[in-house]
Amino acid sequence: MDPVPWHQAWQAALYAPDLGFYVTRGGPSAHFTTATHGVPGAVLARALLRLWHRERGESPPAVVVDVGAGRGELASHLVGAVDPRTSVVAVDVVPRPEGLDARISWVESPGGAALPEDLDRLDDALVIGHEWLDVVPCVIAEMDQEGHLREVLVAPDTGAERLGGPLEPLDAAWVEAHWPDASPGDRVEVGRARDTAWADLVRRVERGLVVAIDYGHLVGGRPSQGTLTAYRSGTQTEPVPDGSCDITAHVAMDSLAADLLATQRDVLRSLGVRGATPEHALAQRDPMAYLRALERASAEAELIRVGGFGDFWWAMKRVGTPDVP
C-alpha cells in the first residue's frame, strides 16, 4: 500500500468501521490493564468525585461524562459512587456493551478527536477524558538533516515509513511554540489535534470541571524520538496501522488550555490517596474489613506508583461559576 500521513492511517487503524482496532477487536481491557479496572478504578472514581467537591463545592454534579469510556469500566465505578441525583454518561465508538448498568447512558462517538453532536450544553458537569487524548491521532514529524521538519508517512499494511513534505504552517507554528528544541533526526508528535479536541470538549460544557488524564510530557522534557507505540494482547509492539493493534502516543500536556496541571501522584495525594497499609489490629478485630482495607491500600499504592499510573498527568479546566445555593 502507498504511504500516507501517519495521522490518517492511525485514525483508520483505530476507528474505521470495518478495520478499527477499537471497533473490531474488543475494548482496551482485552489488550492491556488501565487504571479504570478493578479496585483501582473504584478508588479513582471516588477521587474524581472528591476533586469535584473540592473545586466546585458541596453540591454533586448534575452529570458525569466519561469520554473514551472503553467498555464502561470507569463509568461503572462512577455510577456506584455518585449521588443518586447525578446522571452518568459514557461515550465511546462502539454500541452499548451488554450487561452495562442500566443507570449509565451510552452515547456512540465517531472516534478520535470527533465527538457526538448531541454531547453539548453540559451544565453542572464533571467531564473526564481518561486515556482519551493519547488515542486522538496527531501528525508525526521528523527533522531532516538540513533542519527542516517534514511529515512522516507510513505504509498502513507494513508500518514502513518515509519522510514526506514540510509541515502545514499551523503545525509548524505549534512545534515552534511547544516543541522548540527538536534537532536533526528527532521525531515530533504534533499536539495541535489534541489541543483542538480538548478545546472542543471544554466548549461543550456550560458550567463544570473538565479533566484529561493521560501519560504525557512537558516542554523541556519532550522525548527526542517521540512516544508512538502500540499494544497487542498485553504486549508492547511496533506500531503498524493495519487495525491489528492499539496505537498511542503520549500527550504534550502543557499545550492544553488548562487551569491546573499536575501529576496523578500529586493530585491523588492531595485528595487523601496514600496507599498506607491498614493497622494490623484491624485484622484481629475484623479480618474481612482488614482484607478490604488492604486491597484498597494496594490499589491506592498502584495509582500513585512512580514509574506506573502515578506518572499520569492531569489537566483540569474550570468552566463557569458553580451554582451556589
Automatic annotation (TrEMBL):
Pfam families: Methyltransf_28. GO terms for molecular function: protein-arginine omega-N symmetric methyltransferase activity. Gene3D superfamilies: 3.40.50.12710. It comes from the Bacteria. It comes from Intrasporangium calvum (strain ATCC 23552 / DSM 43043 / JCM 3097 / NBRC 12989 / NCIMB 10167 / NRRL B-3866 / 7 KIP). Keywords: Methyltransferase, Transferase. This is SAM-dependent MidA family methyltransferase. One of its GO terms (biological process) is methylation. InterPro entries: NDUFAF7, NDUFAF7_sf, SAM-dependent_MTases_sf.
